[in-house]
Amino acid sequence: MIVLVAIKQIPDPAVVVRVRGDGQGVELEEARPVANPLDDNALEAALQLRESGAARTVIAVSVGPAAWEGTLRTALAMGADRAVRVDAPDPLDPLPTARLLAAVAVREGASLLLTGRQAVDRDQGQVGILVAGLLGWGQAAFACGLVVDEAGRMRVTREVEGGQEAVVLPLPGVITVDPRLNTPRYASLPAIMRARAKPVERLAVAALGVELSSGLEWLEWLPPTPRNPGVRVRNVSELVAGLRARGLVPCRS
Amino acid sequence: MSVLILIDPHQPAWAGVAARLVSAAGALGAERVVALVAGSGASLQAERLAWFTGVSEVIWCDHLGVARVPPEDLAEHVAAVSNDFDHIIAAASTFGAECIPRIAARLGVSPVTGVVSIRDPVTLVRPAHAGGVRMVVRVAARPVLLTVQPWAFAAAAVGSVAAVVRQGADLVGLGLSHSCGFIPATRSGQEDLSMARVVVAGGGGLERSGSFAPVEALAHALGGTVGASRGAVDAGLAPADLQIGQTGRIIAPGLYVALGISGAVQHLAGIKEAGCVVSINTDPQAPMAAVADFALTGDLHAVVPEWIGEMAVVSSASLASGDAPGGSG
Ligand SMILES: Cc1cc2nc3c(=O)[nH]c(=O)nc-3n(C[C@H](O)[C@H](O)[C@H](O)COP(=O)(O)OP(=O)(O)OC[C@H]3O[C@@H](n4cnc5c(N)ncnc54)[C@H](O)[C@@H]3O)c2cc1C
Predict the structure, then answer these.
(1) Helices in A82-235 by DSSP H: which ranges?
(2) Long-range pairs for A17-24 at CB < 8 Å and ≥24 separation?
(3) What is the tens place of the pLDDT at every residue in A37-94?
(4) Is A137 in Cβ contact with B105 (below 8 Å)?
(5) Does the beta-carbon distance from B136 to A161 stay under 8 Å?
(6) Which of A16, A77, B242, B311 is buried most deeply by CB count within 10 Å?
(7) Atom 47, ligand 1: which residue's CA is nearest?
(8) Model-level pTM?
(9) How much distance in Å is there from the Cα of B202 to the middle of ligand 1?
(10) H-state helical runs in chain B
(11) A128 close to A115: Cβ distance less than 8 angstroms
């Protein structure tokens, strides 16, 4: 089995974003680029599938500009067999991103695509499911548990409202992962050094025959709803009095 | 303008969520609102959906022998009827997140997820970057597929006239995946987080004592719903479906109480729209204390019993003075 892991490079999510002066984007220049943390969980899951013998090859794939190669090299250092970058602009909307990933999946003969349940920059949470829909593959979203059964099917535990659902997913399929699935490994220093010399294969959009338009026009970026400054209260009586003044002390009914 | 709303019959608070989807459809300018619910028991839910003011028609579909409908099967069914609609909407829940993009892919259009406000039928607002920004997007293609945050819309009223209810075609089993079990989270029967008016959440500050009891006790006293940070979920104190934040639930209660929660950006992403935020934390420097409307520095294990005690005094005093017991804001 060939497993594709879709990885997005994002600005360090620990850096707080601010809307740009012209309202046409966010200010994030000082944020260092990192892999979307949930995609690291997806890569970890793929590496564990290979280690258990269920997967033969793990291919890390990104749809983005040349500046994303560092992130793919980290994926190689963590243990991916190959890294492929589709040379595309950043940002690129989810639908064209998914079209390109679907084309790569077909081209590589992959039977499983793993990726994070969402990228924590734009928080759209669409790409994995879009790929499944485009390819007509089965899907399991929000995976927090994953094992392979005797028949080679994925047995996925999903986090949903009200509890956990167990799903059987025959391949080919797409699994989007929750951070609870695993703890991603670190790349060792020697592995990082070796990965520097490994190739990151480059694919042109044209070679995949995909249209980049999405039908979405991002008009503007707005700051979040502002919050009023709060107060520090010294004890519980002050707190309850403050809440009461706001009409927020409910009585026991 | 016709809007199709997709109902998740397994979401514990499905009816409340549906009421908000109906008003979101109204905000989209719908003249005709059709609700669709699929799975075993769907006919009963359809009967209830028919009473929401604003619903024109309810369609329920069976999926022979299958209680939890695979999203692939539902998506295929909806894609096939999509020509009749200008918009197809679902809640920004796990159900919406797995169905709406799949339908969109089948139709070759871009979906918009997590919508919190509707400017006009094709111009939508959604948060991004852990709630640090809101993005405004215009959608060119039809139908427009979107998921909406339930809390961002008022609940539609229950009217006195029921809409037409009819059975749609059975869903076709594609066999792409199937559900084989469900383990309910231990805390059920409470109001859904995404619509609760009072939420009391516990965090890593409860790890040492190893018990979520203070959170439950205060939630009970305040008539609120229990929530958690990832710190509490990772410590095994709360089930994952109670997690609030960027990779959990986004909520907008009138009152939010954070017990022993540091206030990491990923957590704050879930409470950006909360009315009044209270932080109880031993660390005066905790980021949660900085965003809170009321910050109290102290050990939650001492503060919670005192707070509950104080409330008992308040409520008996107000009962004695003849005030009607008030709800939350
Ligand atoms: C990609 C990604 C997604 C994430 N998504 C989420 C998400 O959706 N939701 C979420 O919550 N987190 C999320 N996180 C995790 C987040 O970064 C924090 O690690 C997490 O929120 C910490 O939880 P906490 O504040 O409860 O725990 P801690 O960081 O352990 O903080 C505990 C707090 O309790 C205080 N405390 C300790 N003892 C007491 C006491 N006796 N009384 C009162 N106060 C006390 C401490 O001072 C401290 O402030 C995510 C992280 C990543 C990387």
Answers:
(1) 94-108, 127-135, 189-197, 205-208
(2) A17/B129, A17/B132, A17/B133, A18/A223, A18/B132, A19/A221, A19/A222, A19/A223, A19/B133, A20/A221, A23/A220, A23/A221, A23/A222, A24/A220, A24/A221
(3) 999 999 999 999 999 999 999 999 999 999 999 999 999 999 999 999 999 999 999 9
(4) no
(5) no
(6) B242
(7) B283
(8) 0.95
(9) 9
(10) 14-27, 42-49, 71-81, 94-107, 213-222, 230-234, 265-268, 287-291, 300-320
(11) yes
- Helix ranges (DSSP H) in B170-243: 213-222, 230-234
Q: Which tokens is B139 given? A: 């959608």
Residues 6+ apart with CB under 8 A from B307: A236, A239, A240, B218, B221
Judged by CB atoms closer than 8 Å, whether chains meet at A252 and B223 is answered as yes
Q: Give ∠ CA B268-A120-A167 in degrees, rounded to 5.
A: 105
State ipTM.
0.96
From A6's Cα to the closest Cα of chain B, the distance in A is 17
Q: Which of A138, A217, A244 sits opposite B72 (nearest CB)?
A: A138
Q: For ligand 1, atom 49, which residue shows the shortest CA distance?
A: B262
Residue B320 reports pLDDT greater than 80? no
Cβ-Cβ contacts under 8 Å for B137 (sequence gap 6 or more): A216, A217, A218, A219, B112, B123, B124, B125, B126
B190–chain A Cβ distance below 8 A for any pair:
no
Q: Are B151 and B250 in contact (CB under 8 A)?
A: yes
Pocket residues: Cβ below 6 A from ligand 1 = A 37-38, 120, 179; B 203-205, 229-232, 243-248, 260-262, 264, 266-267, 280-283, 286, 299-301
Q: What are phi and psi of B24, to 5 degrees?
A: -65, -40
* Ligand 1 centroid, distance to B279 Cα (angstroms): 13
Question: A-chain residues within 8 Å CB-CB of B174?
Answer: 138
Enter the DSSP assignment of B243: B
Q: B33: distance to nearest CA of chain A, Å?
A: 24
Quick: pLDDT tens for A135-190. 999 999 999 999 999 999 999 999 999 899 999 999 999 999 999 999 999 999 99
